Amino acid sequence: MNVNIRRGKESDMPALRDIINHYIVETVVTFEMVEMSLENRKTWFTQFSESGRYQLMVSEIDDEVVGYAASLRFHQRPAYSPSVMTSIYLKPDQIGKGIGELVYRALLDELKKVEEVHRAYGLVVLPNPGSERLHEKLGFQIAGLLHEGGYKFGEYHNVRMYEHRLGK
Known about the structure:
The chain is an alpha+beta fold.
């Protein structure tokens, strides 16, 4: 298996939409509730750059996009601007193959080069042992637990917050 990690581009948006829509419809790992349109993903894509706080990395096998990791705005208030929220999603049939670690590590390595980024946070809806192990393997530390922090599919779900100290 030859995995290529690269920056995301607008032409990836149909594949990324399909990946996230699976998780929206089938799982609680994201608290999004409505499937994403291609127009939504194209708008979402406009926030990313190659050197700023908000970046998008994709993983592909044989020219097929199979996953992505992104850094996004953590909070609207200006004092939070040195912090980013991270997310990672893979096609379901690619989980457990090490692809998530590759694409997430590439994102974190790029974020470490950005002086304006001090912390990266990841939210994991519990239970999700694979995502918990991945965050810990990549140097994230547990920062807290949001008890019943989200409501989806008729149930409340706990959310663990992970923190990665990127800044000096």
